[in-house]
């Protein structure tokens, strides 16, 4: 059961998640050091994030750029980096370019152009992952699997964007095989991208609190964990 009590034993939960990642990796014949855990801080207030940083987390993931920018300011005294992992409108590219180290939801050439322009103006570079809609669900963002390689090829001219791999959200399903199919498809696309040197280190960001062990077994190099670390998110008040 996920502990939803604020600031209660974060380091203990972090240790438990890392042990589960290690076990899943070893069961698949992988080295656990090849998988990074990205804490997802959606709706978690900055005061609680200081506990995460004290426990050793140095890069935090945030879905919404406005929330990430606010927390970046509130925690500016800490040595941490921010990864924006949610859908981004082109008119918010400037906000991301101002502070984020990593962007995991690149899904169009138009957005790439906007980000590159803003990063060039700021004299910065950024690691980006292309988001792929492996489930085909209309509710999810991401480029279609069949268009992924074309987008990766089109990103080559953007010198401020370091394209380093792919990201996906698996199918919303209780059927583990349906979930694993999404992970395997992303891995296959990554491998094809590697053949053309399109994906840098070949990062695979896939797997969240409910399915990260299956993702690790299918090749994830980054798992995005929110609820299992910080507890169930509070519902907005009416």
UniProtKB/TrEMBL annotation:
Pfam families: Ala_racemase_N. The modification N6-(pyridoxal phosphate)lysine is found at residue 42. CDD domains: PLPDE_III_YBL036c_like (cd00635). InterPro entries: Ala_racemase_N (IPR001608), PLP-binding_barrel (IPR029066), PyrdxlP_homeostasis (IPR011078). The keyword Lipid biosynthesis does not apply. Residues 14-233 form the Alanine racemase N-terminal domain. The keyword Secreted does not apply. Keywords: Pyridoxal phosphate. It comes from the Bacteria. Belongs to the pyridoxal phosphate-binding protein YggS/PROSC family. PANTHER family: PROLINE SYNTHETASE CO-TRANSCRIBED BACTERIAL HOMOLOG PROTEIN (PTHR10146), PYRIDOXAL PHOSPHATE HOMEOSTASIS PROTEIN (PTHR10146:SF14). HAMAP family: PLP_homeostasis. NCBIfam families: YggS family pyridoxal phosphate-dependent enzyme. Pyridoxal 5'-phosphate (PLP)-binding protein, which is involved in PLP homeostasis. This is Pyridoxal phosphate homeostasis protein. The lineage of its organism: Bacteria, Bacillati, Actinomycetota, Actinomycetes, Propionibacteriales.
């Amino acid at each position: 059961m996920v502990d939803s009590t604020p600031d209660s034993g974060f380091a203990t939960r972090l240790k438990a998640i890392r042990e589960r990642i290690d076990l899943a990796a070893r069961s698949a014949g992988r080295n656990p050091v090849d998988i990074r855990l990205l804490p997802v801080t959606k709706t978690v207030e900055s005061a609680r994030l200081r506990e995460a940083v004290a426990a050793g987390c140095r890069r935090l993931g945030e879905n919404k750029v406005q929330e990430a920018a606010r927390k970046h300011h509130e925690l500016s005294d800490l040595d941490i980096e921010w990864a924006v992992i949610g859908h981004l409108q082109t008119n918010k590219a400037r906000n991301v370019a101002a502070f984020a180290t990593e962007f995991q939801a690149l899904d169009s050439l138009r957005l790439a152009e906007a980000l590159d322009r803003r990063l060039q103006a700021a004299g910065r570079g950024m690691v980006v992952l292309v988001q792929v809609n492996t489930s085909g669900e209309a509710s999810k963002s991401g480029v279609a699997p069949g268009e992924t390689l074309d987008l990766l090829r089109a990103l080559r001219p953007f010198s401020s964007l370091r394209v380093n791999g792919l990201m996906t959200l698996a199918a919303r399903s209780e059927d583990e095989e349906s979930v694993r199919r999404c992970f395997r498809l992303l891995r296959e696309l990554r491998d094809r991208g590697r053949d053309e040197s399109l994906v840098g280190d070949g990062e695979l960001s896939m797997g969240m609190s409910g399915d990260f062990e299956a993702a690790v077994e299918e090749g994830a190099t980054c798992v995005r964990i929110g609820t299992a670390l910080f507890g169930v998110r509070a519902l907005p008040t009416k």
